Automatic annotation (TrEMBL):
Residues 4-133 form the VOC domain. CDD domains: VOC_like. InterPro entries: Glyas_Bleomycin-R_OHBP_Dase (IPR029068), Glyas_Fos-R_dOase_dom (IPR004360), VOC_core (IPR037523). Pfam families: Glyoxalase (PF00903). It comes from Ramlibacter henchirensis. This is VOC family protein.
Length: 140
């Protein structure tokens, strides 16, 4: 298997609220909720850099599709990271997320590994790290 990820799907309890957070709050582009005509089909897609896409899908639909029961929420199972080019950009993204309705779980600060980072949770509880890492700068 080639180490490639093309789609990240986040299960959410309130799809319209999640779309509002990412589209209106963070300014990410989407065509909105599609597939509502199908049972367990409502989903929203966001185009990210390098061909990666983010999907927001109701947790019950994801559970149905996988054959697994809906499990309890756990924000510490994984974290998504958004690397930026400066400490000022970390602060700006954290402020934007907070203004959009995110819960700041750890304000941005200098890190033990020589960078600067903070964490927030989206309205569904998914954990995001916003980081400036001098060894992992994103392209311009």
């Amino acid at each position: 298997m080639k180490p490639r990820i093309t789609l990240i799907t986040l299960g959410v309890d309130d799809l319209p609220r999640a779309v509002t957070f990412y589209r209106d709050g963070l300014g990410w582009s989407t065509q909105g909720i599609v597939g509502e005509q199908f049972e367990h089909g409502a989903v929203a897609f966001f185009d990210l850099d390098n061909g990666l896409r983010l999907a927001l899908w109701p947790r019950a639909s994801l559970a149905h599709d996988t054959g697994l029961p809906v499990g309890p929420h756990s924000s510490t199972e994984f974290a998504l990271a958004h690397n930026v080019r400066s400490t000022e950009e970390v602060d700006a993204v954290m402020a934007q997320a907070k203004h959009a309705g995110a819960k700041i779980t750890k304000p941005a600060e200098k890190t033990f590994w020589g960078g600067y980072a903070g964490y927030f949770q989206d309205p569904a509880g998914h954990l995001w790290e916003v980081a400036w890492n001098p060894d992992m700068l994103p392209p311009d």
